[in-house]
Amino acid sequence: xxxxxxxxxxxxxxxxxxxxxxxxxxxxxxxxxxxxxxxxxxxxxxxxxxxxxxxxxxxxxxxxxxxxxxxxxxxxxxxxxxxxxxxxxxxxxxxxxxxxxxxxxxxxxxxxxxxxxxxxxxxxxxxxxxxxxxxxxxxxxxxxxxxxxxxxxxxxxxxxxxxxxxxxxxxxxxxxxxxxxxxxxxxxxxxxxxxxxxxxxxxxxxxxxxxxxxxxxxxxxxxxxxxxxxxxxxx
Amino acid sequence: xxxxxxxxxxxxxxxxxxxxxxxxxxxxxxxxxxxxxxxxxxxxxxxxxxxxxxxxxxxxxxxxxxxxxxxxxxxxxxxxxxxxxxxxxxxxxxxxxxxxxxxxxxxxxxxxxxxxxxxxxxxxxxxxxxxxxxxxxxxxxxxxxxxxxxxxxxxxxxxxxxxxxxxxxxxxxxxxxxxxxxxxxxxxxxxxxxxxxxxxxxxxxxxxxxxxxxxxxxxxxxxxxxxxxxxxxxxxxxxxxxxxxxxxxxxxxxxxxxxxxxxxxxxxxxxxxxxxxxxxxxxxxxxxxxxxxxxxxxxxxxxxxxxxxxxxxxxxxxxxxxxxxxxxxxxxxxxxxxxxxxxxxxxxxxx
Amino acid sequence: xxxxxxxxxxxxxxxxxxxxxxxxxxxxxxxxxxxxxxxxxxxxxxxxxxxxxxxxxxxxxxxxxxxxxxxxxxxxxxxxxxxxxxxxxxxxxxxxxxxxxxxxxxxxxxxxxxxxxxxxxxxxxxxxxxxxxxxxxxxxxxxxxxxxxxxxxxxxxxxxxxxxxxxxxxxxxxxxxxxxxxxxxxxxxxxxxxxxxxxxxxxxxxxxxxxxxxxxxxxxxxxxxxxxxxxxxxxxxxxxxxxxxxxxxxxxxxxxxxxxxxxxxxxxxxxxxxxxxxxxxxxxxxxxxxxx
Lengths: 235, 351, 292
Fold this sequence. Notes:
By secondary structure, chain B is an all-alpha fold.
């Protein structure tokens, strides 16, 4: 269970997140929606430790994440798939995947995990020796998610995975994601501007605006309520 | 309006300072002190030039020792040809040759930034001192050239101390240099220097010819180094490659860091420390009876530590310099506003 | 013709020493975007340490190993204690910091070891070999120099390209933020990077000392030439750095031989300026033009 309480983040004089609270239960996907600049990416970066909040706490089960370094948080099982893929383009596909679980002691299981990533995203297997800079947008997204999975995380933070992806590919990846969530009991936080696609896979949703939680509801209700959808999500 | 009143203010200040120094050197200081005072003035001229280049225009130069060498050799070579050439002419000649060298380096370095420019000027500082050894017939090889110190004019009397005369010359040169630079720094040109340092892209967008600005800054600072070099030759009564090692360039950099990067008065403070620190530590180490190996290197070790500590201790970089502690809180505010801190990376996140 | 061969061999041998320094500079640049101007002074220092060890009766090789180990420690400590705070700051800070370390080391060395020029022993003869009646223009020490740097390069290649440690170090250098969220302790990788770079520098110091002798500023020129080689190579490419450095070694050797030894450093300066003016991103870097 990922529990975010009262998190406030400020840069200089600007408040990026204002007392944001939400919980992500195990085995579920929570969508975080909102316009550009609403604070969605800041939220994810705060959880993964790249940003230090002014107040608030982020609990992973019994453990407090605030104050720990990003490396430490990753080693506690938080997988962060950053906005824009964040693959290391100078390395090959295989090297990128291996990066995912390098800190793990269990080498044998790591090899298994890498194989599973190739199973999850077969197109990567064909390109395993290729430099990541030569991948297409969709392949990069697959690589990024696969890499995060190699570490066998308990929490998965996905920042705008749909960016640059065509509809069919996006749907495929989302489906695999849903399967993974149930298989492995993951807590998934899904940041998306493409609210429609996010709501189709999420269990619950939170709408951020100017750093504040404006609305929180189940995905079904939010998708179903036309008025709400129009008001907050514009469709 | 602004120009005239600044000039007048500066003029009065320097005039007053000139009179004060005249009185001190004539009636208070003994010849040995005058000798040291000349050295301070000489370094101050060079440091002031470096301040303009590095502190105000943001271009790191590790080659100012080499530029001083050009000035010193110009004067020495000319005097070796013709011992009677007037001092003023020698100063001007040195300024000219070193200024040209500065233009060349400036043009070559106009596109270089930060570590690249530092590396290129480092290469110059290491390479140039070896050239005189090669053209030994002109430059006197490793022994170098000797020249006579400037003689006081007859009307001052036969017993007028040459150290005092040299101090007058050096101080006059320093006062004039600082007067010119102080006005330059406050002028539109000075503003352009700072703008290019703080944000090159913005400067270019507002119509400033960045390359020309960079070259001008180099020429100005090189001219100062040339003047200092020429005076240095008179002060030492000669020139040899050994006087212009990399240590000189590094010491000058240390001087302006100590004084506060970008502050002209700081350049004076730094030069003062540059000259007197070895004197003080020399006294200390001889009383403690340390070996000469240790004693001679104490000032340098202190410079190294000062540079390291200055960088580590000042969170915004070397904005105020070590001297700001000495000058107190209000002066710190004023110097960091006027000199402008090193362009700090914006703290904004990659949102 | 004979002279040309001599100059060429000299050039390559010296070039390999510069290559070690160039590699060290490139490693640090890729990891932390800093030029370590103190790399030469560090190498000088570790060579002095080796001399002390050897003078106390230890064999050359023990001194050699101790020099390299000391270098590694010195580099790691410098990164951890001095450089870490300035890594995120504007570049001028790191420039002045490394110059401070340079000045400090060159002042402390004579305090600890004496300031007079000293000779340095060689592990194998540095007299040119004779094959039958022909005098070859290369000595065992020359061969050792070239070989040692080649071995070092090979080891580094293996470490970086074939081990998980190397993968971590590369990732930390290419993209520190992503590496962090993947659980890589980027700080440690940087420290290790500086340590390895200083080890390379220490190697260069040991190889240079017999020829240039040992005195506090003996590595100043070697640093400058290594820097020139790295710049020519483009600062991003280890292969470029080595090629550039060997090129510099050759060019300087020819200038020194045909024009005069005192002019060699000036020749180096001219080469550096010319390359920086024509192709500031280096002769070997392709792709992004770097704002130099």
